[in-house]
Design a protein that fits this description.
This protein is mainly alpha-helical. It contains eight helices and no strands.
């Protein structure tokens, strides 16, 4: 059995989910750090500097494309696995065990993944996509901080963003440890540590992502103006 056949098996697909899940975690750490720059409340100076570095560094741009590819692959692969498992279950259980056997979020990964995918589409179409297109066509970088400030005044954009972050938090609560477990790293010795880190990560990172649009919407952060309070 070659490597291609190995990754096409059920175990291989779970391994793909774990590896792409780890890339997702790395992706979130980097973007969380960049987004957190807005809390300096300096009119977007630090945020724009970080965004400029990410957008103009060739190595980072190459890695960024890979991270996006793995992120999409992770979501699509998860939905395919969910559909396959559902198709195999031709006869439904008479009584659902519910939370007695597993928490609801571990049984709702497909739903959460779909919400995250919708959130990703909105995010890419509003910010990342237009900025990269403008840079690629030679028109330069767009004022991302101003774009975020304006977009997050729109209620439906805020709601979609927060729903995506909510889904991400619950998805990570199950997926963080699961990724390490599938790779054989969730041994009894390190199980408690990995689960603890996973819970902390699942709370802190989504919370930072959620606070950013809320802060813009509530006008806790100043706009991109020269007289912004530093």
């Amino acid at each position: 059995m070659n490597w291609k056949q190995s990754f096409s098996t059920s175990i291989g697909k779970k391994l793909q989910m774990s590896l792409t899940g780890l890339f997702l975690i790395l992706f979130l750490i980097v973007h969380c750090y960049i987004n957190a720059q807005v809390f300096y409340n300096d009119g977007g100076v630090r945020f724009n500097e970080a965004a400029h570095f990410m957008g103009t560094n060739f190595v980072i741009r190459t890695v960024e494309l890979g991270l996006f590819a793995f992120l999409i692959l992770h979501i699509v692969q998860g939905l395919l696995l969910w559909a396959k498992n559902r198709a195999r279950r031709t006869v439904k259980y008479a009584v659902s065990a519910g939370n007695k056997t597993s928490p609801w979020y571990s049984r709702s990964m497909a739903l959460l993944g779909t919400l995250i995918l919708l959130f990703l589409v909105v995010h890419l179409s509003k910010f990342w996509g237009p900025n990269r297109l403008s840079m690629t066509t030679g028109h330069g970088e767009l004022p991302l901080y101003k774009m975020m400030y304006d977009e997050f005044q729109i209620t439906w954009v805020l709601i979609v963003y927060l729903l995506g972050v909510f889904a991400l938090a619950w998805h990570l609560l199950h997926g963080f440890y699961s990724a390490f477990q599938t790779l054989g790293l969730g041994t009894h010795k390190y199980k408690g540590i990995i689960k603890g880190i996973g819970v902390a990560f699942s709370i802190i990172v989504p919370l930072i992502f959620a606070l950013m649009p809320i802060a813009f919407y509530m006008h806790w952060l100043c706009g991109p103006v020269a007289d912004c309070v530093k």
